[in-house]
Amino acid sequence: MSNVSLTRHLLEEQRAGHISADLRLLIEVVARACKTISIAVGKGALGGVLGEAGTPGAASMNIQGEAQKKLDVIANDVLLEANAWGGHLAGLASEEMDHSMPIADLSPDGYPSGNYLLLFDPLDGSSNIDVNISVGTIFSVLRCPEGVAVPGDEHFLQPGTDQVAAGYCTYGPNTTLVLTVGHGTHAFTLDREVGSFMLTTHGMRIPEETKEFAVNMSNQRHWQPPMQRYIGDLLLGKEGPRGKDFNMRWVASMVADVHRILTRGGIFSYPLDAKCADKGGKLRLMYEANPMSLLVEQAGGAASTGRMRMLEVQPSGLHQRVPVFLGSKLEVEAAVRYHLDHDAG
Ligand SMILES: O=P(O)(O)OC[C@H]1O[C@](O)(COP(=O)(O)O)[C@@H](O)[C@@H]1O
Ligand SMILES: [Mg+2]
Ligand SMILES: [Mg+2]
């Protein structure tokens, strides 16, 4: 077992010139918030954290029009509270908040504003909270544009290539933080007795090829023709054009599905379908697709919308949705080929 804590790892990244002291602090604050969320998730029914937020018959809704779970709200509050003292942050944005929040509004006591913007999905996999299946937190860090002291939504609309850090924490049988600052993707497991994240995988690598795909098959009839054809060919197995049998896994928590892919390979997809076409997709670009795409690319994988590299999408809205294909490089390239061939007629 490694004796490298997250703190030591971040100090080494700072000494190597990969991150500033402020960014190190910011990541430590997010990691501390994740520990608090992990404790709340772990208490389950005993902590009164299961079920819907709001009052019976009047569930509270977020900007996405989704009913909020108690833990969505708790996790969001934990992240806000942890970051309220500012210093390192200029503003933050969350799946659960209609608009971004400048740190000046969050911290009226007058802490100085910093240089970074933090975006997060405080609780990913909400439908799994009440059934004791892994959920998580996803986050992305951008630089606040020069000369902007009080950032608005428009300042967050930077492509994924501009992320200076990205990560997620899974709350499952163990609590694992997976992080990149653009120099590899590394995993830290929470030592619950000591209370520290310890480095457990340095330099995660996704195998280029895979025989495992992750998709919500119940949407099949709503998919567009290239997706129908792609998955159809996977299902034909050895006898089909792909020449091998594929296995399927779908946790319905993006963090857990991506964690499996970072650990042993695979392809994860949430394509455009007739149900979500008007919104542009199901998953959110800024705090789901982009951070996961950076982590996957840094581990040797690929991430695409099916038609272009995810990290190069120019965002047009804080809560913008996109189709997602990510994971083993050659398999993502295969999925993209089905889309491009279709478009080319
Ligand atoms: O219920 P579906 O359609 O399978 O969708 C599952 C997907 O939705 C999500 O739960 C969306 O995230 P939130 O729980 O943060 O809204 C992903 O984690 C997951 O991949
Ligand atoms: Mg999510
Ligand atoms: Mg969420």
TrEMBL record:
What keywords would UniProt list here?
Answer: Carbohydrate metabolism, Cytoplasm, Hydrolase, Magnesium, Metal-binding
InterPro entries reported in the protein's UniProt record: FBPase_C_dom, FBPase_class-1, FBPase_N, FBPtase
Q: How is the cofactor bound?
A: Binds 2 magnesium ions per subunit.
* Residues that coordinate or bind substrate: D124, G125, S126, S127, N216, K282
Which Gene3D superfamilies does this one have?
Answer: 3.40.190.80, Fructose-1,6-Bisphosphatase, subunit A, domain 1 (3.30.540.10)
Where is this protein localized, as stated in its record?
Answer: Cytoplasm
The residues covered by the Fructose-1-6-bisphosphatase class 1 C-terminal domain are 206-338
Annotated binding of Mg(2+) 2, by residue: D121, D124, E288
Q: Which reaction does it catalyse?
A: beta-D-fructose 1,6-bisphosphate + H2O = beta-D-fructose 6-phosphate + phosphate
Q: Which EC numbers characterise this protein's activity in its record? A: 3.1.3.11
Q: Name one GO biological process term.
A: sucrose biosynthetic process
- Domain annotation Fructose-1-6-bisphosphatase class I N-terminal: ranges: 5-201
Q: Name one Pfam family in it.
A: FBPase_C
Cofactor dependence is on: Mg(2+)
Record: residues binding Mg(2+) 1: E95, D121, L123
Stretches of the chain forming a coiled coil according to its record? none
One GO term in the molecular function aspect is: fructose 1,6-bisphosphate 1-phosphatase activity
Which cellular component appears as one GO term in the record?
cytosol
The name on file for this protein is Fructose-1,6-bisphosphatase class 1
Organism listed in the record: Montanilutibacter psychrotolerans
